[in-house]
Amino acid sequence: QVQLVESGGGLVQAGGSLRLSCAASGRAFNNYHLGWWRQAPGKEREFVAAITWSTGIISYGDSVKGRFTISRESTKTTVYLQLNSLKPEDTAVYYCAATGLTPAETDYWGQGTQVTVSS
Question: In the chain, how many H helices and how many E strands?
Fold first, then answer.
């Protein structure tokens, strides 16, 4: 059974920082990107950052480049998201996701963790 367990969300003031963690288990993820998406109320889900697990290649959404950093701990199949210089518009539910490199792979999602940035 695949599980993606997020932790680390919370309430922070604008300009502050948070660190999210996602522990993945239940299968090998060599054919996956592991990363983060977010969804704010009334908005579509938005790509934040991901690591291609087999190569370590990293990508970021335009709105977070230069402020957020994704990293991994391969031995634990854990990904982290360091959120710096937070803005009120970063307020959202952040979801850890394992998305397949091809359509043949099943995508997996965590339950989400709330990040709230106050002005």
Answer: 0, 11
